[in-house]
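Um, can you check?
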Amino acid sequence: MVKRRSMVIGLGALASGSGAVFSSATFQNSAESDADFRIVSQPGLTLRRGDAFSSGYSWAYGPGVKTASFINPVSAENPGIDFSDLKPSDLPVAWANEQEDGSLVVQLARQNNSSDVDFNQLIEVENTGQTDENVGISYAGGYAPVNDGSTPNWFVDGYATNNPTDEITKADVQQIFTFQTNSDDTQISPDSGTNSDEPNTHYTLGSGNTVQVDLKTTLNGDQTSVFAKNSGGGDPFVDSPATGSLQLLDRITVGTDFTTE
C-alpha cells in the first residue's frame, strides 16, 4: 500500500474561556514562511472553498458572498475575520476567499460551549485527474500542542479515551474535529476510537467529479472545562496562551490512498 499525500491544510484551533471563541482556522500557502498553515497540492486534485459560500449559509462570509463589521477588507496582509471585533452573538462564523490550493484562505470561529456546530460544505475537493482517487484526511503531525515543542499539562500525547477530566488527548481532538462528505456522511478524518491519525475511511472520487466536505465540531462538558480552565483569561481572540487561547490542531493532510503493483 502506497499513500500519496496531495494537500496539506492548516487548521488552527483556539479554545478559550466561557462565552469566548473556540476555534480559528486558516488554510493558506506558507511554504516559504514560518507559519504552520500551508497547503501542498499535487496535480490531479484541486481544493477550494465549498458550496456553503454560495448557498446563503448564515455563518459563511467571503468575497462575493456578504460582509459584516467584523470582516476585514480583502488584502494580502489581513484578509477575512477581525477576531478582535467578534462578539459571541456573531458566532459561528467562517470566511473564505475565492482562490484555490496554495492561495486558498479559510477562517472559522465558534464558541467554547458544550454543543455541536456544523460547518457544512466548508471545502470541496475536485478530481481533475484521469483516474478515480480514494480521498481521505490524516491528522498525523498536526497536533499543535505536540508541534509547539513542549506539551502543555492539559494535553496528553496519546489516544486514551478515559483520561481525567482535566486533560485532552489526541482522541479528544479527533472527536472535536470530524470531516465527512456532505453527500453521504462518510467520515474521511480519523476515528477517535482507533488509536490512529489516518482516515477512518476513504471516499472514492471519480475522475472529473467534486466532493463537498463538511467540518463537524463537537464539544462536551469536560472538554470545555479544560479549555476554560487553561485559557488564562484575557482576549479570547488572540492566539497566545497568555491571552486566553489554546492551540489544538494546526494541520491536516488531505490526500489519496492507492495500491501499486
User: Anything to note?
Assistant: The chain has a mean pLDDT of 73. The CA atoms of residues 161 and 185 lie 24 Å apart. The longest strand covers residues 116-127.
